[in-house]
Amino acid sequence: MDWVTSHVWRKTTASVLDDSGLTARLIADQLGHSRVSMTQDVYLGRGAPDPRVVAALELIDPLGALQSEDVTVYFPNDGEGN
């Protein structure tokens, strides 16, 4: 389990506590952060996707093909190598 770094562990802890309904202040205290903004920006910055965003993105890829490992997606070149 080499992928379990201290950051991954702290992020997991913060996510579990957040999902349990604890406040950002309590989570920050547990992680040893004096500023709640540090906890929110680094460890809680990505909430669950808004269902409206998910629905809009599914219009682009209704079958989920872009999520498959068997599919290569090619994007048009803008003429500048991008």
Automatic annotation (TrEMBL):
Keywords: DNA recombination
InterPro entries: DNA_brk_join_enz (IPR011010), Integrase-like_cat_sf (IPR013762)
Keyword tRNA-binding: no
Entry keyword annotation includes Calcium: no
GO terms of molecular function: DNA binding
One record GO biological process: DNA recombination
Protein's name according to its UniProt entry: Tyr recombinase domain-containing protein
Organism phylogeny: Bacteria, Bacillati, Actinomycetota, Actinomycetes, Micrococcales
